[in-house]
Specification:
With 253 residues, the protein is α+β, with helices and mostly antiparallel strands. 50% of the residues lie in helices and 27% in strands. Among the domains are: 16-68; 72-177, 2-Layer Sandwich (Tetrahydropterin Synthase, Chain A). The protein is built from seven helices and eleven strands. Helix 3 (112-128) runs antiparallel to helix 5. The termini are far apart.
Length: 253
């Protein structure tokens, strides 16, 4: 009796195990998230853009390509630029961008990320060569806008959208950096001396006003003298023709 039950059970388990192996060998699955694009190709031909969720496919004649659609940041390494006034500087930029059409990007470019990075470097070089060093340091926003104008059309043709472009860092040669530091230090010294001169001028103005007040009201000087020595010990003050006297305070024994 047990043999009649055990044999079919073992056979069922063996068939299930064999079916599982065949399934894993021929088929696979992919999970598509809301923030990504997944393309399916069968025998080299594009078939569909998979929707969010889990999908199963035949591994032997199907290829799956996936890419993230979220906002990304691209940072260029510092590259040497010769400005309009013939000064070599190293400049790095940062760009925020987003993949809009993965199928278009994949069909147009073999490496759309690398092509976009190269185009950004070329746009930086082309734009900054029109700036002098002083303009570049003072008008970073204008330089960023010019780079954005050059790189955005290329990105759109590639299926990407560029959101922002900005100057990340400007590295000056050591000698030029020391020179700019000296200029800034000299400006600070000049501002400090100017502030000191304003302070002295204010003091002189107050003294001149006080002198005019005393000239028109001589009694003010006597009152101020009395006030100054009112709390002093061992001092007698005599003012005016009538010999107004403030006796000295006596110390307690």
């Amino acid at each position: 009796m047990w043999e009649s039950i055990l044999f079919p059970l073992i056979l069922s388990l063996a068939l299930f195990w064999a079916f599982s192996l065949v399934w894993k060998y021929f088929f696979s699955s992919v999970t598509v998230y809301e923030y990504e694009t997944v393309l399916m190709y069968k025998k080299g031909h594009f078939t569909e853009k998979l929707k969010t969720g889990m999908h199963r496919y035949n591994k032997f004649h199907t290829e799956i390509f996936r890419e993230d659609n979220r906002l990304r940041t691209m940072i260029t390494a510092g590259q040497e630029i010769l400005t309009q006034d013939h000064i070599n500087v190293k400049v790095s930029f940062v760009m925020s961008w987003q993949l809009e059409d993965f199928q278009k990007a994949r069909e147009i470019s073999r490496d759309f990320y690398g092509d976009l990075y190269t185009q950004l470097q070329m746009a930086i070089r082309q734009s900054l060569e029109e700036f002098t060093l002083d303009d570049l340091l003072e008008k970073k926003h204008d330089a960023s806008e010019k780079v954005l104008t050059l790189v955005r059309p290329f990105a759109e043709d590639l299926g990407c959208s560029v959101k922002t472009v900005g100057v990340r860092d400007i590295m000056l040669p050591a000698a030029l950096k020391r020179a700019y530091s000296g200029v800034i230090e000299a400006k600070k010294d000049a501002a400090r001396e100017m502030e000191k001169a304003r302070g002295e001028q204010a003091v002189l103005r107050k003294l001149a006003n006080l002198s005019q007040m005393v000239s028109s009201n001589p009694g003010l000087l006597e009152l101020r003298t009395l006030q100054a020595f009112s709390n002093s010990d061992n001092v007698s003050v005599v003012l005016g023709e009538n010999a107004l006297t403030v006796p000295a305070k006596k110390k307690k024994a």
